[in-house]
Amino acid sequence: YKMVQTLLDGYRYDSGAKQLTFGLHYLPDTLRSLTDELQPLAGAKNIELTCVVPNLSSCVRCDLAEIRRVVQNFMDNSLKFTPKGGRITVR
Fold it and tell me: Pairing between strand 60-62 and 23-25?
């Protein structure tokens, strides 16, 4: 389902039907939040999931919903393909 949704989003961007919403966002908080949200899935597979990000002094101009979607996809895939007892570090 996620792959189909991602393809549809790509077509929406290409056709102009979907627009990015840019704003200033502090990405370390977003990465920490996603890591916290996915801890139960990691725990179910006995995977150590940690987040090691620097405390930055500035924000990044981006579409936060899309950044979250992409990073969550990376993290979901990492959890899916890491064997039980493994380790994932978000940097």
Answer: antiparallel
DSSP sequence for 7-73:
HHHHHHHHHTSS----EEE-HHHHHHHHHHHHHHHHHHTT-EEEE-----SS-EEE-HHHHHHHHHH
Q: Which backbone phi and psi does 51 adopt, to 5 degrees?
A: -125, 120
Q: How many residues does the chain have?
A: 91
Mean pLDDT (the chain, rounded) = 88
The model's pTM? 0.79
Q: How many Cβ atoms from other residues are within 10 Å of residue 50's Cβ? A: 12
Consecutive H or E run containing 2: helix 2-15
Do 26 and 53 form a contact (C-beta atoms < 8 A)? no
Q: How many CA atoms lie within 13 A of 32 on its CB side?
A: 8
